Amino acid sequence: MIRPNSPQLKAELNAFLARYGEGSQVRNQLLQKYMKNIKFAKEATSKEEMAKFEATVEFFRKYGDQYELDYLLVMARVTGV
Prior knowledge:
Layout: H1 7-19, H2 25-35, H3 39-43, H4 47-66, H5 71-79
Helix pairs in contact: 4-5
């Protein structure tokens, strides 16, 4: 499953899958590296994590408004997203 309405992402993923077929060494190495532990992704949507995220958003909104900055852009820059 990928992000909806993302034709470029879908095209890149399809190109990768076409280049590195199922069972290829590169594909297996990447799956091992990135899919070995996905616990962090599951926990990101827990109630506790969502509460922390909302508090962070409010912090950036407050100072974004104060300094006339787009809070989402500042959040992305600071958090490295």
